[in-house]
Each structure stands twice: as structure tokens, then as C-alpha cells.
Design goal:
By secondary structure, the protein is an all-alpha fold. It has one domain. The protein contains nine helices and no strands. Helix 4 runs antiparallel to helix 5. It is globular and about 50 Å long.
Length: 174
Amino acid sequence: MAVSWSSAFRIALFVLLVATAVAAFFVLPVEKILKDFLVWTNENLGLWGPVVLALAYIPLTILAVPAAILSLGGGYLFGLPIGFLADSVGATLGSVAAFLLGRTLGRSYVISKMNDYQEFQAVATAIQRSGFKIVLLLRLAPLLPFCLLNYLLSVTPIGIWEYTFASWLGIQSL
């Protein structure tokens, strides 16, 4: 099997990204950093705090950092309606960013590896038939971690808008 330079570069970049995230998770005090970030946004950014909170979800979701602290802290610091809105928009933006990253960086490699697994083929076929419903059900069932699911779904035939709406709806129930 011949691998082009472009594919090799994308695979290497993806592996580097994952390795960096894993190393940072074990080396850095992630929980303390997120708590300090929440306090800083609340004390220093005023009305922009919820916007910055929502945008913070994007890199956290791409790097598969659990953002439960942000979800709980956003509601506590900014009040339930504004905190909920910031968390909802942020988690959806983060999941779409990870989905698009998975679609562009390692798609061909992952698909070539997943073709050997009949379970994945069954899920891909089900998503092709009724993608919205399958993505929503996968979001509701705690079978796979939220961040991992973004990347796995990125190699299925679901469209971006269908994925986004089903993910957003599923995120609301979490």
C-alpha cells in the first residue's frame, strides 16, 4: 500500500496532536487551569465572559480535554440561562471543529483501517440511511466518550448540518 506525502504528513500531524494532548493531560494540572480560567473570565471579561467560555470549548474538544468543569462553572458563574447558552454553543462548536478536523486530517487512513471492522461498516450504513437519528442516539448513549465520538463520526457519510443539529440536540440532554 503506497502512502502519499500528503497523507503521511496528515497522519503524522494527527499523531502529534494526540500525543501532545495525552502528554499535557498527564503533565499539566488541567482541573486547576480550567478553574482559574473560569474565575478569570468572570472577574475580568464582564459581558464577554460567556463568549470566551464558549470559544474555549473549541480547543478543549479538539484535544479531548474533559470540559465538565467549564459546563458546571459556566452555569454557576454566569447564571443558568447565560451559562447554559454559552455551554451549549461552545460544546457544539467544539464538536463541529473536531468533526471537521477528523474529516480533513486522517480521514483516508482511518477509513482504510475501519473497513476491516464489520461493526463500523454497520454503523456507517445505518448513518447513511438515517444519520440524524443514529448520531442523536449515539450522543444520548454513554457508550463512547464525547470527544472520541466526534472523530469517529467524522469518517462516516453524515453531512455536516445533520451532524451539527443531532450533536447539538444530544448535547442538550447531557
